[in-house]
Specification:
This protein is mainly alpha-helical. The protein has one domain. The protein has 11 helices and no strands. It has helices at residues 2-5, 16-35, 40-47, 55-81, 85-104, 115-131, 145-165, 170-182, 186-208, 216-240, 242-269. Helix 7 (145-165) crosses helix 9. The chain starts with a helix and ends with a helix.
Amino acid sequence: MGELLAGDVLPDGLGTATLLLVLLAGLTAGFIDAVVGGGGLVQLPALLLVPGISPVQALATNKLGSVFGTTTSAVTYYRRVRPDLRTALPMAGIALVGSFCGASVAALLPASVFKPVIVVALIGIGAFTVLRPALGDVTALRHSSRRHHGTAAVIGAAIGFYDGILGPGTGSFLVFAMVSLLGYAFLEASAKAKIVNCATNLGALLFFVPHGSVYWGLGLLLGAANMVGGYLGARTATARGSGFIRVAFLVVVGALVLRVGWDVWQENVRPHL
């Protein structure tokens, strides 16, 4: 029981300077996530700077903070864009289950197994988006109702599982899949992606919380910072439109390639030199 309650307090050794850095990262991550996804690129590395925090605790606390940010941005998008929930809500439900399953095997499969594949996928996504400048300008659905919902379900399950087991770039993968496979404009894809991303964060939390992996004090403070960033990001994206989101998407994908690529280099290539 004591182990379960260990997450109720801030980590030992967390100083004011580190806490402020983590909260600033949370605000920035909330903004990035709201626009196009990929906020974990900022937030998770900041959490790993906290003295004494384990990778699993950092991942779990990151999910707690992120669920506040994605919920805030999802509500803001809904009020301003009014996305069709007939696709988003079933997709979110399936993604929640996928994320729970991914989190349950996260400790069994090392991240190094997935990271080279992620780098290749991100490079392909970036190139595809650059080479098709009209992609995501307007919504032009690619499939009829039944096939549309079936494709959305597969996307939700696959990306939900990925978010539970690893996570970097989940929002960006969701946006790209909705734009390229379903035919949404970037703005509407971002609005729906926030609803689904909120569910994937919650699904992972449903696994992490009973295992006592969450630092609740730090996670709730991070959640407050995420909420501010998510609100500002969603308002900026809805005001600027799909063109702005497309540019932000390419910037975030490029940053993810560099970040995950550096991890692959450090883990798989450099030790053999």
